[in-house]
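WARN no homologs supplied; continuing
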Amino acid sequence: MENGHQFQEVSKAKYDCLLFDLDDTLYPYSSGLSAQTAKNIEEYMLQKLGMEPAELPEVNQSLYKIYGTTMAGLRAIGYDFDYGDFHRFVHGGLPYHLLKTDPVLRGILQSLPIRKVIFTNADHSHAVRALQRLGLEDCFERIISFDTLNPSNKINTLDVKNGSESKPVSTGIFDFYEYVRHPGPDVKLPKTPVVCKPFEDAFEKVFEIASIDPKRTLFFDDSTRNLLTAKRVGLHTVVVGTSVRTTGIDHALESIHNIREAFPELWEASEKHEIVKYKVAIETSVIA
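OK structure emitted
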């Protein structure tokens, strides 16, 4: 029995889970979907939050860079709005037809013999629609989305007096545009209540929810910032969309289609893993 345990230790696969970002990772940024998403976010900021048109591009981009998502940044600086309303506005009218079915990626994912999980900052509905367009909706064990990590904050935006929809009410707005234009070393940015990448608490929640061991998991994302956090919390990291590996990131793939060439051991290890399970089972049955 001792030899059997030694064999199990030697043959144990390096990875037992693959964790994937969705947007601009499972399909390229060149699809145009992300650019349209950014436009829809700015339109939401204009129509729903009443922000100044001239400030929108700079504020949108800066909130995204600092807080991981523009929504997380908007909540941090004091805007109070319904998460579902935001997602419906931003993703509801996206041109999903820009995404094309990807039979090559589907074949790769279906041939992978280990767990595959989606981890996206987007809402669940968007993730499902995007995966369906790509033909990948049945290639993953589960989707961990914005909705998974953030409880609903349903806000009634109906004006009871006249029956019309009113704008979200927000008080005490932090002047983020002024901060961006004239950042000061003594200014402390407010924290966001939103749980999302690239913050460590989001990754820790994902590990708990999906029973993931970060030391045996490969994480694929197009965002260097997300990957650097992922590395700090113990994940093995792969940047997708470039062949240039940034310091602090383990691997780089110009395309998600290059997984097989970059990680042949993901397929090779499966045979060893099956042998290990079979050998342990035999020895157990003999002892019984």
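The chain has a mean pLDDT of 87.
OK
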